[in-house]
């Protein structure tokens, strides 16, 4: 280095920084499309949702200009009985569907993880509901819930019921009916997560337990279940998040009824912010929704990372 | 013990296939009166007639152009997924092998935006779309969903595992970053392409909420929204509704059977994003 003249050194470093500048502009070019799209359709709407939630913005520009209203939308939401009904309905759906669906998918995963002929065939079959579009699942299941002579009503008749149940038309049964349909439609998702979790448990642990004389139940309780700790957190929280997004099923099958008993957070948000064109009010609800779901997602990451 | 498991497996398969079998067997029955008589019974699950009459009616119905809906869904899905693979993978490659010091920050933002649920963005998004004049179009169903923080992250993880020697060798040969990306990284990344493409395909093919907000008439309406409308207006024509349902579900199931192996990997990957 010392033997080189200063001019050569300057020329070299100039060339290098020119190279660097060129390669930086090349990588920014690669990043540009995704960045523009992410900013335009994710970051900007997110910031807009927060801003709009403090305004009285409507969908169609009205003669009166949009004004800032402070926390008025939030105060109004907290005292809006329909919002609380939608919140309770959504929480009720989650409360029913999460243990039910997670339990079923764990059972099926443990079963499909054991060894028997045609296992991979049964596995493929078990994934099929996830492949069936939700709108299609809804149509099929609405036939099962038909009154007075759908499959479920014929079944309870066979068990001695003298009348029929209006599954989707009664406030007591509509949500459980939606739960059953939703669990059927999406349980393979959780099942696959469990199958992956089960395969991560070292088989030596089972061999050691067998040598110690542990029976099947003991093996499940002392090896499988603790081994699935992270998977359980993942499954429970992703299922809860999914439950909070409930929309399509209630929108097509019950239109939120009867008497609002199946209206959900997302559906009420869309009703207010879009159908009723109260953009400010709907945005405040969207912000609350993002906080709930975001908090669940962060909670999950903290729990899994601490392991 | 193995026999018991086989029996359990058959029972599980029946519970899963039952509803799908019912959809198919009813779709093949041209006689609505007969369908109504057996709909709630075991007979609904076994085909009693083999006619394509319902399919013909669904496809040729002048009031609901099925082929148009199918084209709309296909077009929107292919554009969103295809452009998404290109845009997301190129961004991820720059993040993995670029020189900028901003990359750590960029990646942190990408990971942070995972937690924002799309449903929370719909209200401001529809306001934007109405100002842009994009309502009732193809681009309103495509453009907002091309970029995906999750896909970028998946591609980034894959690209950062490419051996540094491979990239350096290409650099020494004078190749620029975009060339290295196109000639070396992209051909290597078939598994991630498959994963993100399958997840994207399912998402777009099945999406209902957004298209139901932004499409008005039949011109740009996708299958899912058309299915809901058709079901709402023809609730008692089970034969036709089932034929419609079969035609909508079939492409997804075929894609699944072809890409099954990738599909399992992608679901597990998408669970981790939570």
Question: How would you explain this protein's 3D organization?
Answer:
The complex is a heterodimer of chains A (307) and B (274). Chain A has 13 helices and no strands. Chain A starts with 5 loop residues before the first helix and ends with a helix. The N terminus of chain A is likely disordered. Chain B has two domains: 50 residues, no CATH class; 185 residues, Orthogonal Bundle (MetI-like fold). Chain B contains 15 helices and no strands. Chain B is globular and about 75 Å long. Chains A and B meet through α1, α3, α4, α5 and α6 of A and α1, α4, α6, α10 and α11 of B.
Structural class of chain A: mainly alpha
Q: Which residues of chain B form runs of ≥5 with pLDDT under 50? A: none
Envelope shape of chain A: globular
CATH architecture of the largest domain in chain B: Orthogonal Bundle
Approximately how much beta-strand content do the residues of chain A carry? under 5%
Total number of β-strand segments of chain A? 0
Largest interface, counted with CB-CB under 8 A? A-B, 97 and 90 residues
- Sequence of secondary-structure elements of chain B: HHHHHHHHHHHHHHH
Structure characteristics:
heterodimer; A: 307 residues; mainly alpha; 0% strand; B: 274 residues; MetI-like fold; 2 domains; 15 helices; globular; transmembrane helix (chain B); MetI-like_sf (chain B); transmembrane (chain B)
Blueprint of the fold:
The complex is a heterodimer of chains A (307) and B (274).
Chain A: H1 6-52, H2 72-78, H3 81-113, H4 119-131, H5 134-144, H6 151-158, H7 174-199, H8 203-211, H9 216-227, H10 229-244, H11 248-253, H12 265-275, H13 279-306
Chain B: H1 2-27, H2 32-38, H3 53-60, H4 66-97, H5 103-112, H6 122-132, H7 139-142, H8 149-159, H9 164-172, H10 177-188, H11 190-206, H12 209-214, H13 223-233, H14 238-258, H15 260-273
Helix pairs in contact in B: 1-14, 3-14, 4-8, 4-10, 4-11, 11-15, 13-14
